[in-house]
Specification:
Layout: H1 5-16, E1 24-35, H2 38-47, E2 50-54, H3 64-68, E3 72-75, H4 85-96, E4 125-128, E5 131-134, H5 137-140, H6 144-153
Helix pairs in contact: 2-4
Length: 158
């Protein structure tokens, strides 16, 4: 089943409305689209005030829609899903968290700070099925310089 173009074009036109066309980015999700990246999210968050997300289902949407809307084709990975709803949510979350004030403090954006993929809480030693799993000693020591060095050596985001 392929979604016919007129309904999608009318819905997109309504979403775009009278907005300045330069402030609107239309995204068309399809498996063969350009793979989404953090750099794209950063650029879009600073450049556009509005994103219009066109999501197909099953076989997709009549291809003339992307041409008529001059849409950017996008994929979130090298795999196929049953629809574009999940990719749309991924893009919304990734772009939105880059907007000033969304996370409260710009330092909260992991890609803009030193962060480790490993995080810990209490207890200091977790005992599970007879095996002890301790929090690394450097993180319990209180030496902020050593903690930062440890984070840099375990940074999975760069």
């Amino acid at each position: 089943m392929v979604l016919e173009p007129e309904s999608v074009l009318k819905a997109a036109a309504k979403a775009i409305g009278r907005k300045d066309p330069r402030s609107v980015l239309v995204l068309f999700f399809e498996p063969g689209g350009t793979q989404f990246t953090t750099a794209m999210a950063d650029g879009w968050a600073s450049r556009y005030r509005h994103l219009v997300l066109i999501c197909g289902r099953y076989e997709g949407i009549d291809a003339r829609v992307k041409y008529a809307l001059r849409a950017t084709t996008l994929s979130i990975g090298p795999y196929v899903l049953t629809g574009g709803e999940l990719p749309a949510m991924v893009v919304l979350d990734c772009v939105t968290r880059r907007l000033p004030g969304v996370l409260g403090d710009d330092a909260s954006v992991e890609e803009r700070r030193v962060a480790s993929g490993d995080v810990y809480t209490r207890p200091e030693v977790l005992r599970w099925k007879g095996i002890d799993y301790p929090v690394p000693a450097v993180l319990r020591g209180g030496n902020h310089k050593e903690i930062e060095a440890w984070k840099r050596s375990h940074d999975t985001l760069s």
